[in-house]
Amino acid sequence: MINLPLIAKKYDYHLPPELEGLAAVGQLVRVPFGARHVQGVVTELPGQPAVADTKPVLELLDPEPVMTAVQIGLADWMAAETLAPLGAIVGLFLPPGLGQQADTLYTLASGRATRLEKIGKVQTRLLSLLEGRGPLRGRQIDRHFRQVDWRASAEWLVKRGALGKQAVLPEPRVRPKFIRVAQLAVPPEAAWAAMLGLGSTAATQERRAAALACLVRELEEVNVSWVYAESGCKLSDLQELAERGLIVLRENQVWRDPLEKVEKKGLDPHPEFDLTASQARAWEAITNGFQELASGRPLAPMLLHGVTGSGKTELYLRAAAEAIRCGRQALVLVPEIALTPQTVRRFLACFPGQVGLIHSRLSEGERYDTWRRARAGLLKVIIGPRSALFAPLPNPGLIVLDECHDGSYYQSEPPFYQAATAAQSYARMAGALCLLGSATPSVTQRWESQAGVSIYLELPQRISHDDDLQGSPGLPPVSVVDMRAELKAGNRSIFSLALSDALQATLEREEQAILFLNRRGTATYVFCRDCGQSLTCPRCDTPLTFHVQDGERLECHHCGYTRQKPVKCPACGSTQIREYGLGSERVEAELETLFPEARILRWDWETTRQKEAHEIILSHFASHRADVLVGTQMLAKGLDLPLVTLVGMVLAEVGLNLPDPFAEERVFQVLTQVAGRAGRSARGGRVLLQTFQPDHPIIAAATGHDYAGFYQRALASRRELGYPPFSRLVRLEIRHRDAPQVEAQARALADQLQDWIEAGERRQTDLIGPVPCFYARLRGEYRWQIVLRGPDPLSLLRGRLPEGWRVEVDPISLL
Fold first, then answer.
1. Cβ count within 10 A of residue 216
2. Which of 205, 411, 558, 779 has the most CB atoms at less than 10 Å from its CB?
3. Buried b (16+ CB within 10 A) or exposed e, 268-284
4. What is the dihedral sign for C-alpha 718, 414, 638, 318?
5. If residue 367 lies in a helix (H) or strand (E), which one and from where to where?
6. What is the C-alpha to C-alpha distance for residues 551 and 427, in angstroms, rounded to an integer?
7. CB atoms within 10 A of CB 171
């Protein structure tokens, strides 16, 4: 059985005699599918096919399997649990450039084109192109016919015999990388004896003798570019020496490794620490877990609930070492690319040369080579965000999810999946230990640990390895600043007097501060003061955000639409165009005005678009080349910065009042995590939380670092409303450019779902909606949604998934 890209099910093929005994489960093959040739992955080798008439497998595309048997099992489970096409799930496991659909090769039929009459301009151009260039693939022709539909013209020519076409697989976008090396092939004495008579001219003789002398000195193989530089020789000179049998020329494969330069820069050795009492108890449970797995018994996931700075990473490192000692590998997932440099350096210090990095900012070649090294068992630790879960490790023994509560583990575009849930299933199938770590686990994750679904481990206190600090540094005190009182006192600044004074004191002590605001840009919307008209995105109907970087521009943060700020209101013609609201750019600008001597860095989406931007910003701040770091949610991702003694939350309640059952949980988590960046050394620290809602229970819980209070309140609310963990949710969304049509489709499906609920006696399943989504129009399409809530709403859709609908199982947001 073979799974094909973007296909929802498996299809049976047979192996021709020449491939019998060569194909194995997990291999990538080329097969016919309709009129096309496509790639597929072998998922099973059954004794008998499910259908009588099967087509043959045409070719094995890789001698080694591209997926392990456990990964195939995980893909099957994910497809069943998310209702996504199995082919789309399998695509997650393949590196970029490997899993591709077939292309078409077009050739010119000799003599037929000259007999055609009344051919159009596009046909004429196409025939001329093929006559001049020879056979071309469809993707190559695309480059010559930009924004022109040439394929219909090609089909017309094919039917009349002027063109031939053949299904072929595209050229891979990434290939293994090789370098040419040279090495002495004879004893040094023989090489010196052959130095004379190497060339017919004095210049040739000099170059070749110099090249041979270089290789005599080195003996080991060296890159030919070094030989060129040392001797001034050319490739033809080395080829002549190789033909005489004096040297060997060959190509060696090299790995494109993004971590090579990190290791070359040098790493501080990982120090040995004595575990605290709570760490020791957690470590004992982890080692017992490894013993359980070694004896063949199943093991529940472990939830490591530790306050910020409690030493969770030390336990991750020791668990990875234990997995490697057992002859297995470790997967370490982090929620954001921003965290990978800091995490990678810690693991590289412990496991030099054995760590691989996977994330979307790497080049395709780097990701492809890391994938191949993982498959070959050359890497013991893989680190990265959710996509790293699908690295083809031969025998994973540990899966870590740091900051397991984070929404970044959820893929919010098809195929939808929750990496934190998938990781637990993967660990169960692989017989690996799954370790979930967080200072603010989700309500569902904490409830599952109470219900016995996972094993609860707690690190309730911070630790410090600072010799100047006696005992635990403790969590930083959080002070609430009521911005309503600031306004009454006449302070119109975005900074309260308390925060301004604290920043001044921090700068005078030559310490560092973090300013957090959960918004990008300079202003959250732009409007006309005369008529009140707000400038919105023409494709999304959401307010445009004002940015001053690269000129005054307005940008939609949903679809990327941009325009210049208008001089006049498009509605009334007034020139009274003003910006309102806060963004990270405005915070940075006002900070520069108040503290011109401060060195300021901004860390948000705009400043981290380029490759390695995260690492550059973080390394600059960690080495105290900046005094203040202004940023958005990236600052909440587990950073350890000992010089940070002040954290200021400029507007704490952003997102708190959204119409979403998970909004309060997200706000509590981000506020608690950001507060945890302060006071991680003997210098201590403090947090100032600015808000217009100082009495809100979530603000109060975050102020007191009161996870238990937040959890009990949230659990009671979820129980009363019937939300997870006391039910499961399935969100269905339909999109269309025609508003009446999308509404009609939503109402029709809601009626059908209600009939299914009543006919199937699933009266415990509630139907919420249909209603327009919170963002009712995105990228030019109108959006409506339906939510199913109940013990097993997924069962209502199995086998009858509505076409054209996006289906999210256990979504993390209903907006």
1. 19
2. 411
3. eeeeeeebbebbeebbe
4. positive
5. helix 364-375
6. 50
7. 12
pTM > 0.90: yes or no? no
- CATH 3.40.390.30 matches 267-459: no
Domain 2-92: give its CATH superfamily.
PriA, 3(prime) DNA-binding domain (3.40.1440.60)
Q: Are 664 and 715 in contact (CB under 8 A)?
A: no
Q: Are 164 and 188 in contact (CB under 8 A)?
A: no
Contact 182, 255 (CB under 8 A): no
State how far the alpha carbon of 60 is from the alpha carbons of 13, 64, 145, 376, 760, in Å.
13, 9, 33, 18, 46
Cα–Cα distance, 787 to 797 (Å, whole number): 12
Q: Which architecture does CATH list for 728-809?
A: 2-Layer Sandwich (3.30)
Is-contact 25 73, C-beta < 8 A?
Answer: no
Q: What angle do CA 582, 586, 588 make, to 5 degrees?
A: 130
pLDDT exceeds cutoff 80 at 410: yes
Structure tokens, 564? 């210049």
Q: What's the sign of the alpha-carbon dihedral 122, 124, 125, 126?
A: positive
Q: How does DSSP assign 590-648, residue by residue?
A: HHHHH-TTS-EEEESTGGG-STTHHHHHHHHHHTTS-SEEEESGGGGS----TTEEEEE
In this predicted model, what pLDDT tens digit does every residue of 758-788 receive, in sequence order? 887 667 899 998 999 888 888 888 999 999 9
Question: In the sheet that 28-33 helps form, which strands lie side by side, from edge to edge?
Answer: 10-11, 2-3, 36-42, 28-33, 59-60
| Whether residue 415 has a cis bond before it, omega within 30° of 0 | yes
pLDDT confidence of 304, banded at 50, 70, 90? very high
Q: How far apart are CA 200 and CA 491, in angstroms?
A: 88
**Alpha-carbon span 454 to 301, nearest angstrom:** 5
Kindly tell me the burial class for residue 492, based on how many C-beta atoms sit within 10 Å of its own C-beta (0-12, 13-18, 19 or more).
exposed
Residue with the two structure tokens 């596009």: 122
Q: Coil, strand or helix: which one is 758?
A: helix
Q: Confidence class of residue 5 from pLDDT cuts 50, 70 and 90? A: low
Indicate the CATH number for domain 478-519+582-717: 3.40.50.300
Cα 577 from Cα 566, distance rounded (Å): 8
Q: Are β-strands 728-736 and 781-790 bridged in parallel, bridged antiparallel, or unpaired?
A: antiparallel
For residues 194-213, give the mean pLDDT: 91
Q: What is the pLDDT of residue 468?
A: 52
Contact between 128 and 121 under an 8 Å Cβ cutoff? The reply is no
CA distance 544 to 560: 10
First to last CA, the chain: 39
**Range among 2-6, 15-19, 258-262 rated most confident:** 15-19
Domain ranges of the chain: 2-92, 103-108+120-168, 177-254, 267-459, 478-519+582-717, 529-575, 728-809
Residue 456 amino acid letter: Y
**What HEC string does 723-746 produce?**
CCCCCEEEEEEEEECCHHHHHHHH
Distance CA 609, CA 647 (A): 25
Please report, for residues 741, 748, 809, the alpha-carbon distance to residue 736 in angstroms, rounded to integers and kept in the order given.
Answer: 7, 15, 21
Torsion of CA 236, 239, 244, 250, to 10 degrees: 170
- Do 267-459 and 478-519+582-717 show the same overall fold? yes
Cα(749)–Cα(746) distance, rounded to whole angstroms? 5
Query: pLDDT tens digits for 427-455?
Result: 999 999 999 999 999 999 999 999 999 99
d(CA 651, CA 575): 30
